[in-house]
Design brief:
Layout: E1 5-6, H1 8-13, E2 20-24, E3 42-43, E4 47-48, H2 69-78, E5 86-90, H3 98-107, E6 113-116, H4 119-125, E7 130-131, E8 152-153, H5 155-164, E9 168-171, H6 175-179, E10 198-199, E11 206-207, E12 210-211, H7 214-223, E13 231-234, H8 241-251, E14 256-259, H9 262-268
Parallel strand pairs: 1-6, 2-4, 2-5, 5-6, 8-14, 9-10, 9-13, 13-14
Antiparallel strand pairs: 3-7, 11-12
Helix pairs in contact: 3-8, 7-8
Length: 277
């Protein structure tokens, strides 16, 4: 699997690969208020990647925090994931939660992982096989986590970078939230943005649940007039940031990371500077 993005047709052609693991990263609710038509439908053979309960640090102060390598390894093994598994991750909104799960596997050292372009809606529209419940693995997997800490940035890293400018922060929130002209969905939290960051709302890289073409994506990233510094992606809580990181991965060779605490941590931490238009 060369690309971080695969089509429904590709996945259907590889259903009989004994190494294939299909993971459903859908959640019942989301901060964007998006709804799915397929709440009770899954891709044939898929297992449930519980992003909120099993693959986030429940003890962390902020939502969607990446778990420890030990915790991630244990939960991945419960899903039957092996070190040689070919993993395809999808969600029921097209592309929404799945890039977060994809990025975590990458951060934990597993390269053979991709997102299903168009997600469950594309699979259903292709008339490919579905089921009404998730599959359960027959045995524990032998997955081993090898955490690459360079793929995660802390609030201290981002604060220091305001003056040093060793990397570029790209914010996936809406323009209104980034500019400080629209409210945050989390009550009592100021909108605005990290000084010296730029804005690429996650919806701009998508087209009806599919990733836009590489030429369109290249044009979007070119419009940001980026220098050659590494890229660090942020959003409200580290989830939709992974959508634009995935988009960047398709067209950009610069090193990439996620500011995991994202705006929720930044705006709720005393003393952090906030810019508005």
């Amino acid at each position: 699997m060369q690309s971080p993005l695969v089509s429904a047709a590709w996945l259907n052609d590889h259903l009989n690969d004994p190494r294939l693991i299909i993971l459903d990263a859908s959640t019942k609710t989301n901060i964007s208020g998006k709804k799915s038509e397929y709440d009770d439908l899954q891709i044939l053979g898929s297992r449930y990647f519980d992003l909120k309960n099993n693959f986030s640090d429940a003890q962390a102060s902020f939502p969607n925090t990446i778990p420890s390598a030990e915790a991630f390894e244990k939960e991945a093994q419960k899903l039957g994931v092996n070190e040689d598994s070919v993993i395809v991750i999808y969600d029921n909104l097209g592309i929404y939660n799945s890039p977060r799960a994809w990025w975590m596997f990458r951060a934990m050292g597993h390269e053979n992982v991709a997102v299903l372009d168009g997600g469950l809606p594309a699979w259903v529209k292709g008339n490919f096989k579905t089921q009404s419940i998730h599959s359960e693995p027959e045995t524990l997997g032998n997955f081993k986590a090898h955490f690459d800490k360079s793929q995660v940035k802390s609030i201290e890293d981002v604060l220091t970078n305001i003056n040093k400018e060793n990397f570029t922060v790209i914010d996936a929130r809406s323009k209104g939230r980034f500019d400080g002209t629209a409210p945050e969905p989390r009550e009592g939290m100021s909108s605005g943005h990290i000084p010296n960051s730029c804005n690429l709302p996650f919806e701009t890289v998508l087209d009806n649940g599919f990733m836009k073409s590489t030429s369109e994506l290249k044009s979007l990233f070119d419009s940001l007039q980026l220098n050659e510094n590494p890229l660090v992606f942020s959003c409200g809580s580290g989830l939709t940031a992974c959508i634009i990181l995935l988009a960047a991965e398709l067209v950009n060779d610069q090193p990439k990371a996620i500011f995991d605490g994202s705006w929720t941590e930044w705006a709720s931490t005393e003393g952090t500077p906030i810019d508005k238009v």
